[in-house]
From TrEMBL:
Its cofactor is FAD. This is FAD dependent oxidoreductase domain-containing protein. Residues 3-381 form the FAD dependent oxidoreductase domain. It comes from Gordonia aichiensis NBRC 108223. It comes from the Bacteria.
Amino acid sequence: MKLIIVGGGILGTSHALAAIERGHEVVLIEREREARGATVRNFGLVWVSGRSPGELAAAQRSRDLWEKIGTDVPGIGFRPCGSITLVRTEAELAVAEETVARTDSTEREFTLLDPAAVRALNPALRGTYVAGLHCGRDGAVESRVALPALRAFLAATGRFEFVGGREVRAVDSTSGSVRVTDDRGVVHHGDQAIVCPGAAHAGLLRELVGAEPPVRRVRLQMMQTAPLDEKLTTAIADGDSFRYYPAFAGNALDHLGAVQPQTPVAATHHMQLLCVQRLDGGLTIGDTHVYDRTVDGDDADVFGFDVTEDPYQHLIGVVENLLGRSLPPIARRWAGVYSQCLDSSHLVYREQVAPGVWAVTGPGGRGMTLGPAIGEQTADLLNL
């Protein structure tokens, strides 16, 4: 079979990988010469720790797939680094204790560490905290280089073509096969098409769905430092991250929300700390959240075109407090936008929008974590 995949981010590339592994041909069309959306603007985290119980099986499967991909494609920079969520108050500690006591704790490889054990595992963490929730199943890839490395691996099969710098204008399957027309008038023929538009919800996606798709856009701010002169052996998070991941929901989290409100800047910008060290030593640090629709589908905030300094200064202070030292200079600041399915019970918005044509988008902040598993699920659904 020949598949035409529209969208060269992590979802489109993961679908290409699943199809190629099953013996098919793939043409992957990306509107930019190189994908530059959410995939390359994220942490590169494979984040099993925060996934809800209903998502855990998919997250674990994706984590295993990433490890296999990392063996086949060393250029993606996969490492099973794990993570430590550092807690600084008794209320945050109670959330960590409740999490470790759950039945799926062993499966996630959760361990609650005292400060001495935290420093033994990650000596760079010489700052202030009362405990650390370690997740041995978390990992990381190099988000800025993973996609080119994956495409080179796929191209070596002789059954993969990447067409960059082309925007798809139409997808038609009325004749029985699929015809995908790009903005240069070139028609790409295939047996099926998978459209992975990322956060581009208007235009092609809306035309294919025939209505407003059940997804929303989420904007975040992040930054990266110059290389740190020591190694962070794990990714790190702070106690605010408990508030944003469904795995930590429970009585202790409800109590945390009641007795320990976020700082004004963190609350205003819906913030948590995540931090991962790149292979060059720099630290990717974030993030904030702004939503353009409510979970009911109504219009919400309008995204600004600029980035705001207060969240950056807040995050710098949090990281320096946990490291017990000053950070290197900030080398880059940026904003990114990802697509989030409005129905939280689904990993992704996935719908057959025409015969032989599927739309797949909206993994939320889980795209890098769940991409390989989502691609595999779609391949199963299409009987590839």
